[in-house]
């Protein structure tokens, strides 16, 4: 899953692709590098990010989705949004995947998911993007995330969401300390026991500043190391900025899983 932030303030590439032509060029590059899904977001959810209007978010993402849908019918297009109005507009324009940091908790979000009958990624987040990194605390972060997913999966299925289209994302960096993040990454196999695919998004995250003292443009090696570990733990989807490099790492990791090297 290649990250396409059509925003001026995302933590890694804010402002680089807010121009639609630049956004389309970046999407084309990620597709050529092997992305299966392009995850298009018009609102930054970095720690401390402020909300924008739904209309502004729609105006950022819909033109990009329309062009990509026409030019790349073979690629899945994901709308990265927590707002039902934006989800609906994006799906109507040609997106076919909902990636929601709020796990479809907003009023009307479940209705949109059921109406369009598309895959949905439910992410765990403590608090909101505005507040999530203000001293997050858990008695047991893994159990808390499991409990949250049980509640959200039940709500989705009760509303009519196809369980075969549910994906879970533990929300690395969303209302969590570095220690919380590492505990969740080490327990991906535990999350997998719920029976749903797991998506992991660690690409260029701030935990690499803490762990490796690396600025955002120097976090590729750390991101790849965690992606490989997550793969061996059973992760199914990888949301990344660096598509070619991550695909190479996962291809080689897959080789050792699938081939007898004796």
Summarize the structure.
45% of the residues lie in helices and 11% in strands. The protein is an alpha/beta fold and 262 residues long.
Write structural notes for this entry.
With 262 residues, the protein is of the alpha/beta class. The radius of gyration is 17 Å and the shape is globular. A 6-stranded parallel sheet has the order 1-2-3-4-5-6, with helices on one face. Strands 7-8 form a two-stranded parallel ribbon. It has 10 helices and 8 strands. The chain is 45% helix and 11% strand.
Our estimate of the beta-strand percent is 5-15%
With strands numbered from the N-terminus, the spatial order across the biggest sheet is: 1-2-3-4-5-6
Low-confidence segments, given as residue ranges, are: none
Rg over C-alpha atoms, rounded to the nearest angstrom: 17 Å
Our measurement of the CA-to-CA distance between the termini, rounded to an integer number of angstroms, reads: 33 Å
Helical/strand content category: alpha/beta
Morphology: globular
Tally of separate helices? 10
What is the oligomer described by this structure?
single chain
Percent of residues in helices: 40-55%
Number of strands: 8
